[in-house]
Structure formats: C-alpha cells, structure tokens
Amino acid sequence: MSSKNIESHLVEKRVFKPSKQFSKKARIGSMSAYKKLWEESIKRPDKFWAREAAELCWQEPWKKVLEWKAPFAKWFIKGKINVSENCLDRHLGTARQNKAALLWEGELGEKRTLTYQQLHREVCRFANVLKEHSVKKGDRVIIYMPMVPEAAIAMLACARIGATHSVVFGGFSAEAIRDRISDSQAVVVVTADGGYRRGSVVGLKKNVDDAIKDDAQTIRSVIVFQRTNQPVSMTEGRDYWWHQEVAKVNADCPPAALDSEHPLFILYTSGSTGKPKGILHSTGGYLVGAYTTSKYIFDLRDEDVYWCTADIGWVTGHSYMIYGPLANGATSLMYEGAPNFPENDRFWKIIEEYRVTIFYTAPTAIRSFIKWGDHWVTKHDLSSLRLLGSVGEPINPEAWMWYHNTIGGGRCPIVDTWWQTETGGIMISPLPGAIPTKPGSATLPFFGVDAAIVDDNGKEVGPNVGGKLVIRKPWPSMLRNIHGDTARYKEAYWSEFKGVYLAGDGARRDKDGYFWIVGRIDDVLNVAGHRIGTSEVESALVSHPVVAEAAVVGRPDELKGQAVVCFVTLKEDVTATDQLRDDLKKHVRHVIGPVATPDDIRFAEALPKTRSGKIMRRLLKQVASGGAITGDTTTLEDLSILSKLGSSED
Ligand code: WTA
Q1: Is the CB of 88 inside a 6 Å radius of any atom of ligand 1?
Q2: Residue-averaged pLDDT of the chain
Q3: Would the pLDDT of 617 be above 90?
Q4: Burial of residue 629 (number of CB atoms within 10 Å: 0-12, 13-18, 19+)
Q5: Residue 601 is part of a domain; what is its CATH number?
Q6: Are 266 and 280 in contact (CB under 8 A)?
Q7: Does residue 146 contact residue 336 with C-beta atoms inside 8 Å?
Q8: What separation in Å is there between the alpha carbon of 517 and the centre of ligand 1?
Q9: 517 lines ligand 1 (CB under 6 A)
C-alpha cells in the first residue's frame, strides 16, 4: 500500500459507536465486557477456550487444552471430534433440523435450499461414495469445484470420514492442480463438468484432464458433478459421475471419531519464495476457532440470513461460508457467479430478495461497486441488513464510509476483519456490539489473540510507529505446519522472532491500541484480495522460452489494491513486441491461472541489480508506480539501466 494511504489513516478521526439498539442484543454488548473477556482469554486461555469448546460436541473429551512446544501447538489433547457432526448432526433433532443451512443461487438464477436435514443426508451419501472409492482416514482429496452446494457437500463429506480436503480455487490452472496433486499426494479429485462465471462456462473438468493427462500421479478416481451439461471426456475406470455414484449408496454414514489434531484440510497459499505452501489445519482447534469467531464477530442469530461472498477456494470460503456459520446453525447463502452478471446490481438484488441480514465481502468488490455508481444500489431495498463485514486487504476509509452509508444505510456496524489462511480464523476485528469502529482500522484483537507491532529487533513499538505485526501466543485455529515441509514452516513464520508468529504484514497501533494494517511486507502481492507470490509469477515468466529474466512487483491500483507489474528481459535476438507481451500474459494465465494475469509487462535491457546480483525491487516498485527514483542507488551495477527502465513506455 502506498504511503498516501498510511497518511490518510493517520488523520482518520472519525469514530462510530455501536448503536444502543445493536449493543443491547449483541452477545458482547460493551467495551468493558470485551476487555474483561479478552483479559481472561490471555491470562487463562485454558479456561476461556475450554468454555467455548464445550459448546461443541465431542465424541471423547480432551484431557488438556493446550500443549505448546514452540512453534508446535496441540489443542484439546486426546479429544475426539468430528467437524461434520458439529456442522450437521448437532442441529438435527432441534428446531434447526428443517432450517435452511444453505441457500444457493446459481449465476443463471436457479435457486436451491438445503435444510440441515437435507444437507446431512447429502453429506452422508457423498461420504459413502468416497468410501466406495477407497478413500480412507488421512487420505487427501482435491476439490476443484464451482460455487455449488456440492462443493460444500464434498468438504463436509471429507470431514465426516477424516479425509483431508484441499480445495483448489476454480481460477487456478491445470498446472496449479498438478502441483497440488503432487505436493498433497491426493487420491481423488472432485470436480464438475464446468462452472458459470460472468455468463461463460469455465471448463473445470478439462483442466483436471490436462493436469493428469500424462501422469495421474496418485489419483485413482475423478468424481464429476454435472453442472453445465457441456460434453466432457470421461476416462473409463478413472472418471465417475457424481449423480451416478450417489445413486449407488445409502445415507447412513456415522461421523468418524477423529483426534482433535487430525488434519482437516490443506489450503495452498503464496509465500514470498518458491511454490505455494500447503497450509495445514487441524480438526478440533480449527473448528473451535471458526465457531467462536463466527459467533462473536458476526454475532450470528438463528433468524439471520448470512452471506459471505468469498469463493470456497479461499480460506474465507472455508471458515466463514461453511464451517463457522454451520457450526453455529446459521443460514449461509452461497452465490455462484459474478457481482456484475447480468448487471451491476446482482448482489443488491440478492440481498433484497433473500432479506440478507449479514453481508461479508472484500474491499476490492466495494471499490468496484463505488465505481459502478450508487444508482445500482439505491433501487434496491437493503433494509434487512444489520451487519457488514470486510476482509482480504486494508479497506481505505473512503470505501469504508461508502460501505457504511450507501450499503449499511448508516445503521450497520462494519467488522473489518484481519486474518490469514494461516490463522484459520479472524484475529483482529471489532466486536459489533462492543468496539467503536474507525474507518480503515481492524480495531482490536479477538479473544485469545496476543497481537503486537514490533521493530526489526522484535521490540514492541509505541503508538503510531509502524512495524511488523506478530502474534505472541498460540491460538486454537492456528496452522499446524506446512504440509510436508516443517523446515519451511519454521523458517517462514517462526524464525525472525523466537516463539513468536510473524504474520508478514506491516501495521501500526494508534493511541487507543487500534490496529491499522498497512499491507504485506514480504514479496507477496494482494491483488483483489488474492495472495500472489511475485516469485511464482517470475518463475512462470522465465519458463517461457524467450524470457531471460523477470522481476515482478506490485503497483497500487485503485480497484484491485495492487496490480501485477512484470519487468522482463528477453533472450538475445528476441524482439519485444505487443504480440509477445500478450503471449507472456497468456503464458502466466496458463501456468498459474487467470487469478495471476499480469496487468503490465515491461521489457527491459537488463534488470537493476546490486553488486551481489540481487534485483533491486524497491527501485522497480518505484518505476512501476511511476514515482521518482529516490534513495541510495550506489550499489546498482549499472545506473543507466535504471534510467532506461524509468523511461520505458508501455
Ligand atoms: C491481508 C484472507 C488488512 C493481509 C483472510 C493478510 C488484510 C492477507 C485484511 C491474508 C484486513 C486480510 N485488513 N489486510 N481486514 N484481511 N488482509 O491468506 O495482508 O488470503 O496477510 O487470507 O490478506 O490473505 P489470505
């Protein structure tokens, strides 16, 4: 994020107190109630978390709440628990049995409702399908699906039998699937013939075919849900139709008793170096985290219609579309498609029609809505909304104010929730009935979260001094490891400050202790709320035969937060052309997926480097943003290169 944004944070003086009406009903209704519980959660975490965990159903009780041998935590030791039982069976035989668990709307306007009872039945059947395909406890299953209820069903079915799912976002390519299969050693892929996105069909099955065409690796079966009915190729003995498989099994599938530390899922995310990291999450601790944060931060009630717009392929889709809301017995809405299909008011239409009460989306979406114009919003009745949420990147105060006034009608609290794939659940956020909000600040840490801002030596800094965001105590939904790479786990998160979790974000706290997140401090970009590692894009670029070297940096972007700018040097005798620029963009889309498409490709004769050969990213960032080059340039190998880059036209 640019320093301009940091400044606008610094002058932010507006404070919005929760309304009396909201606070009166909320679970945590005052700042003093928050402080009291937070103190307890930090001083006596065992007591706090045992009380929260006891609200869930355990097949066998835990013996000890926490075992912390930094950087390895175990929560609810020896407890046995099943996530799908907590999300489904727990609500059967109660008033929630026939309540909508999932409300689904397809991009084309189709509607489906699955009650808790119906969802339970579908999950049990699909769990039996997985068993028929010899999926055993601990096996990995890749889920590469559009936003249809079957994606949730597949996740919950894995959880039911103790298979570890790894959802791959539909915007990733065949190569990305291949890498994830190879890293996770998955035995089954669950996919669909295709999915709808902005009116066109995305060929998901085709991507899976391409991923395993030369080498199926560990994959034994591919189960294909029929969504679009487009023709797809089915390989005999490997590919099976979802509807045919579920027709063969019954709906009797008791939830497996799983150790609290059993791996629930792996979700791949970008880091600053190398290939994506398989973030490994546990069963008991993760669920307690997702459940507790959903309960207090969204203040979920039985009568709510809760809508999180995230894709199931991201952690937000895991924790706050599926596991957190369902563990709370909430009604969670799932929409398949784009916000601007068929027109720019699709979201507002949905809110009006379903009487959505809680709406959770990303700043990048909010900025698009602002751009599209208020008239798309004002023609709809959004009076059902009572709470708004934001996640994925820092929300600029202007977007916050628009969200507050135009969507929230000035009456809905906004929870700006800071967290990460690694943290499993929300870490810093207002509690809507208790904590006054300031536009652009994620405010205060959630229960049990000991967050701080430190300098390069690990020393806590004073008010309004920028530094690194760290978490000093373990929390239940924290990642347990990087799948298959403990060394990287230690190195990436725990090596800079001993026993302290390094988030990779820069931030500051104001005099009230409020956190203001500035953005990533490593080589990870945040493009439209999606994490993209610059090194991944660089290696995609250099895998193209004409590219000699590549350096990728972020440039502030009004809509997406950051845009992907690539500096490329070409091999000898290759001429830079517009055609080549397009080819390279396509190449990156092919290797990583549309999510990482470069916004700009700039050809250079050489990249600016230090004497030791390190690419000077700081300078490239300045060039990319069109800013003047400042600072020390004496370590540059060749200064003329820099000026050439600075004036390069694209
Ligand atoms: C950023 C998404 C500011 C941050 C849940 C973090 C945020 C990265 C916020 C994690 C927020 C997320 N304010 N920045 N409210 N929420 N971020 O793993 O840089 O996809 O490190 O998890 O998004 O992205 P991830």
Answers
A1: no
A2: 93
A3: no
A4: middle
A5: 3.30.300.30
A6: yes
A7: yes
A8: 9
A9: yes
Range of the domain at 579: 528-643
In a domain, 282, yes or no: no
pLDDT one-digit tens code per residue, 438-447: 999 999 999 9
* Closest residue CA from atom 15 of ligand 1: 418
Whether residue 552 is contained in a domain is answered as yes
Q: What average pLDDT does range 345-370 have in this prediction?
A: 97
Of all protein residues, whose CA lies closest to atom 8 belonging to ligand 1?
420
- Decide whether any atom of ligand 1 lies within 6 Å of the 400 Cβ: no
Is 345 part of a structural domain of the chain? no
d(CA 509, ligand 1 centre) in Å: 17
Given pLDDT bands bounded at 50, 70 and 90, which one contains residue 4? very low
Residue 392 CB less than 6 A away from ligand 1: yes
The identity of residue 97, as a single letter, is: Q
The minimum-distance atom of ligand 1 relative to the CA of 531 is 20
Cα(584)–Cα(568) distance, integer angstroms = 10
The whole-number pLDDT of residue 637 equals 45
| Pocket perturbation via mutation, ligand 1, pick of 5, 321, 323, 393 by most ligand atoms within 8 A of CB | 393
Domain count, the chain: 1
Tell me, using a 6 A CB cutoff, whether residue 179 lines ligand 1. no
- Residues counted in the chain: 650
- Expressed in angstroms and rounded, the spacing between residue 507 Cα and the centre of ligand 1 is 12
SS percent in the chain: helix, strand, coil, step 5: 35, 25, 45
Q: Could you tell me the distance, in angstroms and rounded to a whole number, from the CA of residue 5 to the centre of ligand 1?
A: 16
pTM, two decimals, is 0.94
Report pLDDT digits (tens) over 323-344. Answer: 999 999 999 999 999 999 999 9
For residue 2, the model assigns a pLDDT of 39
Please state, in angstroms and rounded to a whole number, the distance separating the CA atoms of residues 114 and 121: 10
- Give SS3 for 251: coil
Q: How far is the CA of 421 from the centre of ligand 1 (A)?
A: 8
pLDDT at 6: 43
Q: Which atom of ligand 1 is nearest to the CA of 524?
A: 19
The finding on whether 531 has its CB within 6 A of some atom of ligand 1 is yes
418 lines ligand 1 (CB under 6 A): yes
Residue 546, in any domain of the structure: yes
Query: Among candidates 88, 55, 54, 76, which has minimal Cα distance to 254?
Result: 88
Range from 93-102, 269-278, 435-444 carrying the lowest mean pLDDT: 269-278
User: Phi/psi at 308 (nearest 5 deg)?
Assistant: -105, 125
- If phi > 0 it is left, if psi is from -120 to 50 it is alpha, else beta; for residue 435 that is beta
Does residue 595's CB lie within 6 angstroms of at least one atom of ligand 1? no
